[in-house]
Amino acid sequence: MNICPVCTNAAPFLDYRGRSAEICQDCSSLERTRSLFLCLLFTGHLKSYGTRDFRPIVHHFAPERSLYVRLSARHTNPNYFCYDFFPEIYAFAKEKISKHDLCDTQANQKLPLADVIIHNHVLEHLPVDWRRVLRELNSRLMPGGLQAITVPTRRGRFDEDLSDLPPEERKRRFAQEDHMRIFGDEDVIGMMAAEGMKPFRISHYLSPDLASVFGVKNSYDLDAAGRAGGSTVFYRENI
Ligand SMILES: [Zn+2]
After folding, report:
1. What's the 119 CA to ligand 1 centre distance in angstroms?
2. Domains in the chain, start-ordered, CATH in brackets?
């Protein structure tokens, strides 16, 4: 039996895109979604969650429905904002979502200061310096605020190419036709650390059994072994 920490549904997670027990039957959360939610929860950034006082200022890029429902407190949090370069593809968020280009420094600088900034598997798509985007978003954190992210990560080292590569070459090198880069477990922790982003040590918070129940066992095992993967959350708190 699994319990989804995002939606609290108790049912086995289903296999998804070749990964076993990956997707929640109710809210469609994936392991990285659940890991990120647990990071927000365990690092104390969801204060008043579940009460009427829950209204943190949130910037959520490429929003997942599961986190959208929770962080918007079912549309009662007036301070929840979500964005994408293609907002029209998010039918569930059509009244809330706006167009935002993370490559646009001026647009990033205009974002209101936030308590929580999150994005899952977004940086690999941006045809600009990903470090600059991270820095620009970190500069939009309130005192005490947090940016938390995940990035696709393979065995080996970071690879990137911003030139005009054919899509099939991008798929071969970066796992998808529209990826500009891919991170590697040999250097991602150091590269993120250089930007002040540290890995969320999920193995410090859960037992292996609970990690299995919550569907974050892969993140747990990698973390316990000192490695990172595509569900490893990196975060920075503006302290
Ligand atoms: Zn769920």
Report:
1. 18
2. 28-237 (3.40.50)
